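Write out the bound-state structure for uridine-5'-diphosphate-glucuronic acid.
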Amino acid sequence: MSENTTPLKLSVIGCGYLGAVHAASMAELGHEVVGIEVDVAKAESLAAGRVPFFEPGFEELLRRSLDSGRLSFSSDMADARGAAVHFVCVGTPQRRGEYAADLTYVEAATASLIEVLGPGELVVGKSTVPVGTAARLAEQVAARVPGAALAWNPEFLREGYAVQDTLHPDRLVYGVPSLSGADTAVDAEKVLDTVYARIVADGTPKVVTDYATAEMVKTAANSFLATKISFINAMAELCEATGADVKQLADAIGHDDRIGRKFLNAGLGFGGGCLPKDIRAFMARAGELGADQALTFLREVDNINMRRRIRMVELARQVCDDSLLGKRIAVLGAAFKPDSDDIRDSPALNVAAQLQLQGANVRVTDPQALPNVRRHWSQLDCVDTPEEAAEGADVVLLLTEWKQYRELDPGSFGKMVKTRRVLDGRNALDREAWESAGWTYRALGRRNV
Ligand code: UGA
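---
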């Protein structure tokens, strides 16, 4: 157990990506944690130390926490009874056919948690929610369990770095009742400081604020990141029109540390289960609040992002002598980003599917995401290795920049294909090396040589 931690009993409601990592990380910090997951198979799998998704470093952490005896999983909310703090970590997906977030799971989780909640206990929301949600849930908690309280503590973890981001976050944000006009006896800041004692002791910056600000920090951060990516992709469109080079442009503006080079990688744009749905839910919420004009720029951010996928298909058509019909195309990468098996709103799969619909013969490969692709995109032909994907190919598309693809040897890899043509959808390959090996190299926003 970590020396400076007063162990607490915690529950984590919802053991998907965020919740499972949070639960194991809290046990790592020395607390006694029960993860509550309604999906019985998922709860059993986690309890047996099997991770139902790909996340580097997580399986080791999970097993260590289980072996310590401090972590358990259950499908019965009654097992959350008596915990000092209950973290709500369920998903808030985009509503079907709408921009707004679907709060069904947050509401259901809170309602069933209230049934077992005791006075003096703290409910802590971590899910990404529309601003105003925490205040509404806090009223429900106060009305049903006098003496219990609610805080909002958004999570900023990135897939692929989830363990690192949870145990060593950039900042802690607490939306607390005392600053939100709610009257409660629970000192939420003190409780959260006890939970995160080791992280606080590391000198991690902390912002203690009201509910609305805490909720908005999360959506504002994701909107800013999406805007940064779409900004550089808009510059890529201009580079294509002028013959300039977006990679050099990004390097040059990124040297200004007011701008910074991170999240300025031009290419196929953003996907995944967070950025796309969060900017849409933010726009929808702004509309409900009568402040839609403030976020109209996010519609453009979304449009720029979606245009990159169309542009990639066009570029593939161009290099295939203006026709995709019957062309053999190798797609390297299916996950929405490397080091993840998540294919939600994956730009790579969007492009692969468009190419296939337009008559190309597409073969997709990915080091981790193929089981998910086979489950959800059965119409796509999946193969295990980049070599198999490339056999006889008219063109190779790099759509997710896994390390193993960046490190392919263009010389020997070239022996697989029919024609040495590569489209680098992530500006991630060593262009010179590929060109020296006789490949025609094209990328979004890069000048043709
Ligand atoms: C994102 C945020 O980065 C996290 O801080 C946040 O906690 C998380 O959402 C969430 O809301 O839960 P994540 O979805 O894991 O994390 O992915 P990112 O690393 O942000 O990448 C998002 C997408 O942007 C990927 O498709 C990636 O390929 C793309 N991207 C990223 C670019 O196209 N260019 C870049 O320069 C960077």
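---
The pocket of uridine-5'-diphosphate-glucuronic acid is lined by residues 128, 155-159, 222, 225, 229, 263-265, 267, 269-272, 274-275, 278, 336-337 (CB under 6 Å).
The first helix runs from residue 17 to 28.
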